[in-house]
From TrEMBL:
<feature type="domain" description="Methyltransferase">
    <location>
        <begin position="17"/>
        <end position="122"/>
    </location>
</feature>
<dbReference type="InterPro" id="IPR025714">
    <property type="entry name" value="Methyltranfer_dom"/>
</dbReference>
<dbReference type="InterPro" id="IPR029063">
    <property type="entry name" value="SAM-dependent_MTases_sf"/>
</dbReference>
<dbReference type="GO" id="GO:0008168">
    <property type="term" value="F:methyltransferase activity"/>
</dbReference>
<protein>
    <recommendedName>
        <fullName>Methyltransferase domain-containing protein</fullName>
    </recommendedName>
</protein>
<dbReference type="Pfam" id="PF13847">
    <property type="entry name" value="Methyltransf_31"/>
</dbReference>
Amino acid sequence: MWLLHRNFKAPLGKELQDGIVVLDSGCGPATWTFDMAKEFPSSKFHGVDITPLSFPEGVKPDNCEFQVANIAEHIPYPDNTFDYIHQRLLVMGLTHESWDKTLKEMFRVLKPGGYIELHEPNFVKLRNTGPFIQQLHNTISGMLESRQIPADIALQLDDRVSNAGFDMEQIVITPMAINHKNKAGCLLWEDYRHAYMNIRPLMSMQNPDWESIEAYELHMDACGQEAKERKTYLNWYTYVAQKPLKEH
C-alpha cells in the first residue's frame, strides 16, 4: 500500500533480494503478492485465500503460487516452511476464535527466526469524527461483534500475537487522512465508501433505515463531507513479530 510508503516493514530487505519463501495469508486479489513478486524475483511467494474467485486470472509471475484454504483451520504447508508471512485487512473475516487459530497456524508454518507482519485498521475509534461517521462505526462494531468478530482487533493483536508464541518487534501506527489533506486522502475515502456500500445489507440488519439504498447513500455522502470538514483520520496498525529461534 503506497499510503504506507512501502510494501513491507519487516527487516528483510536483503533477505528478500537474495531469495526467501513468503506467504501472503488471506491474499484476496493478490495485489501485494504480485507487487512483491515483481520487486523481488529471487524470492518465492505463496498466496492462500478461502475462495478461488479472489485469485487473479491470466499471466502471473513465475515466482508466485496460489492455494485455496481456510487459514483459520489449516494453512496447507508443512511446519517451518516460510521465512516471512504477511497478512492485512482481515478485520471483517476472522472471529475471536479464528484469530487465535490463524496465529497458531502461522507460528507452525513459519521458520524459527522468521517474521510475521499484520496490518489492520482501527475501525472502532477514528480521530476527529462527527455524528454521521460515529453512527456508521457504532453500527459496524455492533454488526461485527454480533458475529463474534472483534471490531477492535487492531488494538488486540499485541496480546494475541504474544500469546501465540511470537516476540513482538515493532508496532507502527500510521494516521491516514480520510477525504482531505491530499490525493491519498481522497483515494482512501473512495475505498472506504466502496467498502461500506458493499456491506450495506449487513449494516441494515443493525439499522433498518439503511434497507433503503438511497438513504444509505445519503448517509455515506454526509460521512464524506463530515470527514472533509472535520479532517478525520483513520489509524492503521502494523505489527511485526518474530518466531523465536528456540522455544521459550
